[in-house]
Amino acid sequence: MVTPNLKCLCLAGLVAILGLVAAPSVSAQLSVGARFPLLAGFNLVGTLPETKGSVVLVDFWASWCAPCKASFPAYTQLQAEYAGKGLIILGVSVDESPSAYAIFIAKNKPGFATVSDRSHALVEAVQVPTMPTSYLVDRNGTIRFVHAGFHAGETERELRHELDALLDEKAP
Hints:
5 strands; 172 residues; disordered N terminus; alpha/beta
């Protein structure tokens, strides 16, 4: 179940080399400088992309969240532009309903990987403060940027600047 706090903050608005952290027991909200947890340990529904050596944008979203809907075309464009340089975008749905997830995906046709966190194990471990929240993770699995919400052109400009810098860094 999505916490009321998460739902209430949807309009206020608010990723990963799958590091070496063996989560699912993260006790505080993850922030810049923290390692993003291994996604494989969270019982996510869907196919996880191979992320080793890549820069990863992990975006937490829900079908009921208006800013989340607005982010999908932008993330699809970013994935198309930056995939060849080593970017992987992964959308993580917090929808409890498989049909809500499926309908949203069918309607929005993302050009990036998506999985469902129906059990909310990952969203709770990361302590995602609101929907959407995205975590930009470097090639070493460290969170370098966190975006609270999606603010159309502003968020896109920030992400492009951050991606250009991170993708220019050498892989480990």
